[in-house]
Amino acid sequence: MSKALIVTGGSINVAWAKEWLDNQTFDYCIAADSGLEYADKLGLKVDYLLGDYDSVDKDVLDTYKSNTEFETYPKEKDYTDTHLAIMTALKKGATDIYILGATGTRMDHTITNIGNMKVVADCGKDCHIVDEHNYIYLLSEADGIHIIRKDSQYGRYVSIIPMSENVSLSLEGFKYTLDNYELKQGLSICQSNEVEDEQGIIKVHKGLIIVLETKD
After folding, report:
1. Among residues 152, 54, 44, which one has the least CA distance to residue 98?
2. Which superkingdom does the taxonomy of this entry point to (predicted)?
3. Of 90, 106, 116, 130, which residue is 20 to 30 A from 97 by alpha carbon distance?
4. Which strand ranges, in their side-by-side order, compose the sheet holding 199-206?
5. Confidence at residue 123, expressed as pLDDT on a 0 to 100 scale
6. Phi and psi angles of residue 159, each rounded to the nearest 5 degrees, phi first
């Protein structure tokens, strides 16, 4: 198993998600707590359930529990359901993880979920958070050259936020280019860039960055 989908309990535009899923294939699907209700609405085959299930419709939960592997956690625990789902996906052998429902009105959850992607990066695997307006992933020097094709990028804008204290990167093919630039935490210089050439090239020389391909 290599490509895993996690559905968690943030905000998901179901109509958009159905369209997005039509162009995706996954080897394994994990529903984290109330993400199960979204998975049910999306008609997904769920392979694993986890959470305390206090906010999940009982009828929906009973339907899936009868034929799906599951694990029940206490409501008060050290890790969020999304974090537990990420760790479970890694244990199941995932090398490429996509998460739906990781963003929403609770910015604390959104920021924490982005931070949790580092767990995957530290294992040398890939992780992506996707919603109707954002495609979010991490890049480090270990990833080499990363290419964003203008004709297939997720949205008009590309923003970069340093996740580690010391970051050095170069950008080619963008409206605003950089050459071995020292990007410090707290700076907004890499917000709302745009791919101008046929492809934009990101090269991280040092550190870890958050890349957001976004649209309004």
Report:
1. 44
2. Bacteria
3. 106
4. 145-149, 199-206, 166-172, 178-184
5. 95
6. -120, 150
Which residues make beta-bridge pairs with 203? Answer: 145, 170
Q: E-strand spans in the chain?
A: 3-7, 28-32, 48-51, 69-72, 96-100, 126-130, 134-140, 145-149, 157-162, 166-172, 178-184, 199-206, 208-214
Q: Which two tokens stand for residue 68?
A: 């799906």
Residues 100/131, Cβ–Cβ less than 8 Å: yes
Residue 19 amino acid letter: E
How many CB atoms lie under 10 A from the CB of residue 204? 25
Q: Which two tokens stand for residue 114?
A: 């982005």
* CA atoms of 56 and 42, how far apart (whole Å): 15
Quick one: pLDDT at residue 10? Answer: 93
Distance CA 201, CA 147 (A): 5
Separation between Cα atoms, residue 49 and residue 33, nearest integer Å: 7
CA separation for the pair 138, 211 (Å, rounded): 6
User: Would you write out the chain's pLDDT as a tens digit for each of its 216 residues?
Assistant: 699 999 999 999 999 999 999 999 999 999 999 999 999 999 999 999 999 888 888 889 999 988 899 998 988 888 999 999 999 999 999 999 999 999 999 999 999 999 999 999 999 999 999 999 999 999 999 999 999 999 999 999 999 999 999 999 999 999 999 999 999 999 899 999 999 999 999 999 999 999 999 999
- Say which amino acid occupies 6: I
Q: What's phi and psi for 214, nearest 5 deg? A: -130, 155
Q: Are 170 and 179 in contact (CB under 8 A)?
A: yes
